[in-house]
Amino acid sequence: MKMHRSEEIWLIISVTVLVLSMVVTGYQTFALGMGPPSNTETIDPQKVDETAPFDEPGVYKVGDNEYEVVMTLQIFSFTPGDIEIPAGAEVTFTMTSKDVVHGFQIAGTNVNAMVMPGHIQKITQTFDEPGEYLILCNEYCGAGHQAMATTITVK
Ligand code: CUA
């Protein structure tokens, strides 16, 4: 059976596009380090209370207007809760779960993460607008899931 010339051309074009996109994706992932982070930091979920920095959850000033919030998530709360920071602060949340998978969503921002037992999750967000921001758990984690919430007050 003989192929049409145009069929051949399109076959070559589609294979070329396929190979090129694999090469580009591979280059970005391995040469440029643009691949998604994969479980870079882990922790023993049974020993969160004894493992730094989670042995002392809290809000820490780490720079001019930079803060680190070391936070544990557990059924059905965030520790620490009711956080206060000054306007314009850049806040890095370092989080882990002590039991099941929880969610960490800050209403009115793009912050939306899964926090899993055994893994350390880090997210940085700058809070320019003063106000009260609601933190919600958006992964179903049990009977008290709906009540798992707290706030960040920016002033
Ligand atoms: Cu924690 Cu839902």
UniProtKB/TrEMBL annotation:
Keywords: Copper, Metal-binding. It catalyses: 4 Fe(II)-[cytochrome c] + O2 + 8 H(+)(in) = 4 Fe(III)-[cytochrome c] + 2 H2O + 4 H(+)(out). It comes from the Bacteria. InterPro entries: Ba3_CcO_II_C (IPR034214), CcO_II-like_C (IPR002429), Copper_CuA (IPR001505), Cupredoxin (IPR008972), NosZ/Cyto_c_oxidase_sub2 (IPR051403). Pfam families: COX2 (PF00116). GO terms for cellular component: cell envelope; membrane. Residues 55-155 form the Cytochrome oxidase subunit II copper A binding domain. The keyword Metal-binding applies. The keyword rRNA-binding does not apply. SUPFAM superfamilies: Cupredoxins (SSF49503). It is found in: Cell envelope. One of its GO terms (molecular function) is cytochrome-c oxidase activity. Its main location: other. Subunits I and II form the functional core of the enzyme complex. Electrons originating in cytochrome c are transferred via heme a and Cu(A) to the binuclear center formed by heme a3 and Cu(B). This is Cytochrome aa3 subunit 2. It comes from Virgibacillus indicus. The lineage of its organism: Bacteria, Bacillati, Bacillota, Bacilli, Bacillales.
